[in-house]
Amino acid sequence: MANEKTAAAPDSVQCPVCFKDFTSATINGHLDICLLKGVTDSSPSTADESGPPVKKSRTGPEAIIKPAASSSSVASAQSPGMFSLFQSNRAKPPVQTERNGLFVGKQSPGSAASKGVKRLLNEEADLGAAATETLRSQQPAPASSGQGLKTAKRLSPRTLLAVDKPLAEVLRPETLEEYFGQNKVVGEQSLFRPLLDSQEIPSLILWGPPGCGKTTLAHIIASTSKKKGTARFVTLSATSTSTNEVREVIKQAQNELRLCKRKTILFIDEIHRFNKSQQDTFLPHVECGTVTLIGATTENPSFQVNAALLSRCKVLVLEKLSVEAMGSILNRAVATLGIRIQGQDSTNPKDEDQTDGHRPKIYIQQKALDTMAYLCDGDARVGLNSLQLAVQAQMSKTNLLAPDDSPQEILVTEEHVKEGLQRSHILYDKAGEEHYNCISALHKSMRGSHENASLYWLGRMLEGGEDPLYVARRLVRFASEDVGMADPAALTQAVSAFQACHFIGMPECEVILAQCVVYLARAPKSVSIYKAYDNVKTCLRSHKGPLPPVPLHLRNAPTRLMKQLGYSKGYKYNPAFSDPVEQEYLPEELQGINFFTWKQKTQK
User: Fold this and answer.
1) C-beta atoms surrounding 348 within 10 Å
2) 177 strand-pairing partners
């Protein structure tokens, strides 16, 4: 078999370790096995006869990779004979990818690590797609691998509710068919959907509120890439990743593309946490296609992402999930957990399994699901975790077995859901974009004399934790900018409201702010003062040459020298005259100007 040499197929790829030809679909799996085998084989009996030969070092003829003495030396068996691209940075822990994800966790060197290697060695007998998929399903997946929903379908509802992971992570979707609420972005008729299906994914910035599906969409892309073998997916978080770790991933991506012809998709969660210099690290590599960058952020990328990086990426705006989308997500979770909806016939096979043994029958009111969909404010993570909390709390309170050893029934009501959520989950960030959105809505509602809308936006800000003094300062500004001379008393009302808020604070001052908001909304509006002063600023900034001097008769003359120079000469003291005084107060070149009606002349 070793002596057989046939012409390579047109789409074949040569293994850089054993120099054998493989198809594009099987080279990646073979390369992993070929490299791991050279490190972990302890005797000839453990190797497959058709496996690759021992890899010789490229650094010297005398340096040959020796078989590991035991499984405990797997972590230290990376000799100089291995390619440097597969060696992680020794000064830092290796970046978690799909290759080294098997070795994550506090495990003894001779247990999980050796078992994961043996599973990979057994794959050599069949490199087909079905065997590879089966093998990967047996491997322990990392927390961010996106395998939660498959695991959920294999476990019982009681087990799912008892796991340490949040329900939102366990039930994370793996396909676009299970992904709800973002039809404008990834719907069947969207521009981005064909790119996802064909795996021609550009660099992306996913922008949206918390719990709208940014990370889930990235994991769906990762799952599809792993199944088709078209790309390698790496997940990092900007909150805990250094620039050196990013450079190490990029270096691996360069070697992966050069040796294996496989792209690398790099997902950066909370990318806005990187500063401008850290974001610049991605620029040349995104530009040349070494990595496909997918960044997730809750902040406006126009302000938080480097403009140069933003120009190289496509921004996808994910909207807050609607009540209907939240209902679909919660219904899918209830069906997966095997929970029955009170008053509805069971069509889920898992519901029948609840009667086996001594498992309790779990019911939930439809009204409880509807309330949860409304109160979570479009955050799927809050909704799913609240469902988990409500069910777990009732299971803990109820004895699982009745006196006659028959299973009891557990009912989750609307009151249980409200008790778990406490109050409406209001999306409001005092330092983020929602802060400016709400104050803008309040200002425009008062300008439009809509007192009900003004009260609503005021409540959104105060209930979300906004500083009442900030709102009061904005009301003082509004009193002069939009009410102005139409009701001069509005400024007095706004200043009084600010002082009252400063004296007593929240929550007592909320009614004071509400009174001031309604007064300003009902007051007549005039922007003449605002426009006139804006014309003054425009006149000063557009003036060519030095500004005109102050007329001599308007200048102060406190000294004899100034009087001798003509300061204050010819000034008419108005109180000394009973009739109106004819006197110029503007510089000579501006005499006769009216800033209330003035318009800047456009240059031709």
Assistant:
1) 16
2) none
Tell me what the pLDDT averaged over the chain comes to. Answer: 75
- At 231 the three-state DSSP class reads strand
DSSP letters, 233-274, are EEEEETTT--HHHHHHHHHHHHHHHHHH--EEEEEEETGGGS
Q: How far apart are CA 522 and CA 599, in angstroms?
A: 30
Q: Are 165 and 242 in contact (CB under 8 A)?
A: no
Q: Dump pLDDT digits (tens) for 500-523.
A: 999 998 888 999 999 999 999 999
Structure-derived torsion over alpha carbons of residues 362, 368, 373, 376, reported in degrees to the nearest 10: -90
Q: How far apart are CA 118 and CA 110, in angstroms?
A: 12
pLDDT band, very low/low/confident/very high, at 589 (cuts 50, 70, 90): confident
For the chain, what's the residue count? Answer: 604
Q: What is the 3-state secondary structure (H, E, C) of 367-388?
A: HHHHHHHHHCCCCHHHHHHHHH
- Give the angle 538-543-549 at the CA atoms, nearest 5°: 115
Strand positions, DSSP E, 342-450: 361-364, 409-412
Task: Give, rounded to a whole angstrom, the gap between the first and last alpha carbons of the chain.
Answer: 85
For residue 205, the 8-state DSSP code is E
In contact, 13 and 22? CB cutoff 8 Å: yes
What pLDDT score does 323 carry?
Answer: 87
* Three-state helix/strand/coil letters over 90-131: CCCCCCCECCHHHHCCCCCCCCHHHHHHHHHHHHHHCCCHHH
* List of residues 6+ apart from 302 with CB closer than 8 A: 310
Q: Which residues contact 145 (CB under 8 A, 6 or more apart)?
A: 98, 101, 219, 222
The packing angle between helices 433-447 and 468-478, to 10°, is 40
Rounded to an integer, the average pLDDT of 468-477 is: 94
Instruction: Specify the pLDDT at position 440.
Output: 93
| The one-letter amino acid at 599 | K
Please, are residues 306 and 280 in contact by the beta-carbon 8 Å criterion?
A: yes
Residue recorded with tokens 């979770």: 333
Looking up tokens 């929602």 gives: 434
Instruction: Give the pLDDT band (50/70/90) at residue 166.
Output: confident
Residues 6 or more apart from 59 whose CB is under 8 A from it? 80, 81
* Cα–Cα distance list, 297 to 184, 223, 235, 245, 270 (Å): 18, 21, 14, 20, 5
